[in-house]
Amino acid sequence: MNAFKKMNLPNKLTCLRMVMIVPFVICMLAGRAEGGWKWAALSLFVIASLTDMLDGKIARANNLITDFGKFMDPLADKLLVCSAMICLIDLGRIPTWIVIIIIAREFIISGFRLIASDNGIVIAASWWGKTKTVSQMAMVILQIIHFTSGPLYILQLIVTYAACILTVISLADYLWKNRAVLSMQD
């Protein structure tokens, strides 16, 4: 607890996002994301997503970037989005193959970042990566709301497939721009 008190605000927000995953998953699965459970899950997901945006802005604006934040912030993001997508598979709202593609991309990028880091290289997030993240969060929000027909259902489908396509594009862009990282291995 004492370590938490000593953390800066961006790192506390990152920890809060990770803690929020537990009640979010409970709301998603306990109530099968229907009725009040759905709206509680949606609220938790939106608030957690906003902490992602907020912690980065605060850290950059106030020069509060830490090694803890560099490691834990992307991990918290991945845990939040992946937890949501796994719940959505369980609820039958999103195809498993889309989630596999999205999670595989995260593992590949994490591996690349680890190799780069071991060689003293920091790889910044790209425009494609940021767009992918926003599309995945929009997909999760629409899937939690769960439209079943009409124009909003079509929008939900478009955003879901767009998130998958942007995931693949961002992976290809990342691998191409950082291909030199592969040559750094023995």
What would you say this structure looks like, in words?
This protein is mostly helical and 186 residues long. It folds into two domains: 1-92; 94-186, no CATH class. It is built from seven helices and no strands. It has helices at residues 2-6, 9-30, 35-61, 67-90, 96-118, 127-145, 150-177. α5 (96-118) runs parallel beside α7 (150-177) and α6 runs antiparallel to α7 (150-177). The longest helix has 28 residues, at 150-177. The protein is globular. It starts with a helix and ends in a 9-residue tail after the last helix.
Summarize the structure.
The chain has 186 residues and is an all-alpha fold. It has helices spanning 2-6, 9-30, 35-61, 67-90, 96-118, 127-145, 150-177. The longest helix has 28 residues, at 150-177.
How much helix is in the residues?
over 70%
Integer average pLDDT: 91
Q: In terms of structural class, how would the helical and strand content be classed?
A: mainly alpha
How many angstroms does the end-to-end distance come to?
A: 42 Å
Q: What pattern of helices and strands is seen along the backbone?
A: HHHHHHH
Write down the domain tally: 2
Strand count:
0
Low-confidence stretches: none
- What is the radius of gyration? 17 Å
Main β-sheet description: none
Range of strand content: under 5%
Q: Name the shape in a single word.
A: globular
